[in-house]
Each structure stands twice: as C-alpha cells, then as structure tokens.
Amino acid sequence: MIRELTYDEIHPQEVRIAFENSISAQYEVRARPNDPAAGNGVHSYGIVARDTEGKIDWATEVHFQKGPLPQVGHNGILSNVLLGILIHHLQAFQEGEYKSRETACAITALQEAEAWLARRADKRQAQGILGQHAKEK
After folding, report:
1. How many CA atoms lie within 13 A of 77 on its CB side?
2. Which pTM was predicted?
C-alpha cells in the first residue's frame, strides 16, 4: 500500500515569517526542497493558517516558474510578478484610511527590489541569456 505524504514531508523547510505577532503566528509557511538542477531554487511553498484551536482553516500553495519559459512553458509565477502584486496590495491601503509611513516605506523597498530584478533581466537580455538556465557572462 502506498502511504500518502504529510504536508511536512512535501514541504520540509520551514520559512521564517518576519516580526511574528499574534496575527502572523497563525500562519505557517513551508518550502519544498531546493532543486540543484534548477540553480538550487525553491519553486513551491505551502501556506497554512490555523484557527485558535490549531486546526487548519485555510491553505494554499505558491508555485514559482520552474525552468526556462521558452522550453517548459508557464508553470508558476515570476518573482517580479509577485512583487507587483505586493506593491499593488499595499498601495491600495495607502489610498484608504489605513495609510501609513511604514507602508509607504515598504512599498519603496519592494519597488527597489523590482528595480534590481529589472536590472538583472536587462543584463541577461543584453547577454542573450534571458529565459535560459545559463550563468551571466
């Protein structure tokens, strides 16, 4: 008989959630193993939220693109796409009654991360290796 894998076996690496508090402590993020064949990247994360009794009441997975898009097609989200979602999410709060300096600073930091990833993509494009598993020259 084949045994089903547990959540912890599928996602063995615990991911630290910054500044844990009574709200964020209800969430657990775990990663699947690193993939040495894909630049040692992690491409799948499981997220669960537990109620006050510790029972899972919500769960999802986030899958990142694994492999060069031209060869394997779409199979996950890109880092810059996820950053764009985070920025949009926080900007919406900045347009409402929950506007804060801290959120503005977080948006700026995420935009800076976007800029660095864009610089990396531009460099890879100029070297003719964008969308490939290849080291930069």
Report:
1. 13
2. 0.84
Hey, which residues does 101 pair with through a beta bridge?
none
Identity of the residue numbered 25: A
Dist. CA 88–CA 82, nearest whole Å: 10
The helix/strand/coil state of 127 is coil
| Amino acid identity for residue 59 in this structure | A
| CA max distance for the chain | 57
Q: pLDDT tens-digit profile of 39-98? A: 888 999 999 999 999 999 999 999 999 988 888 999 999 999 999 999 999 999 999 999
Residue partners of 121: CB distance under 8 A and separation at least 6: 80, 130
8 is written with which tokens?
A: 């912890």
